[in-house]
Design goal:
Blueprint: E1 2-5, E2 12-15, H1 18-28, E3 32-38, H2 46-62, E4 67-73, E5 82-88, H3 95-106, E6 122-127
Antiparallel strand pairs: 1-2, 3-5, 3-6, 4-5
């Protein structure tokens, strides 16, 4: 721990060093995202699809190791897929799809027939390259 100068520079107060602070910020950032595009099976079942996705599916995925956050989006004109962005913090991002497959096979992920499966949802895992927040 280093001593940081007070506003007037005359005294010091304990605090983390600037390098330690930067490491804490970097450690808190997810290493990547999983980007998922999906659609309801029909307009008549859109509410059911959203209730399942928001009320069940997001929680199930977030219970898996490495998934630390999720957000969903929809096209502002209503024409397009719903998009889910999952924040992922694991040592090896290639393990994400395997973990999802294992969870689905074991029954830990409950799927809904209100989600369109033909064509199936598009899933892409992306690695963080730059963060300018």
């Amino acid at each position: 721990m280093s001593m940081l100068p007070d506003v007037d520079g005359a005294t010091s107060v304990p605090g983390p060093s600037p390098v330690a602070s930067a490491r804490l910020v970097l450690a808190a950032m997810p290493r990547g995202i999983m980007f998922v595009e999906s659609r309801p099976v029909s307009a008549e079942r859109e509410d059911e699809y959203n209730e399942w996705y928001d009320g069940i599916h997001l929680g199930e995925v977030l219970s898996l190791p490495g998934f630390v956050g999720a957000r969903r989006f929809k096209a502002i004109d209503g024409d397009g897929p719903y998009v889910a962005v999952y924040e992922v913090d694991v040592d090896d991002l290639s393990d994400v799809m395997a973990a999802l497959g294992e969870a689905a096979a074991s029954g830990r992920l409950q799927m809904s027939d209100a989600m369109q499966m033909d064509p199936p949802p598009t899933v892409t895992v992306l690695e963080l390259t730059t963060d300018r927040s």
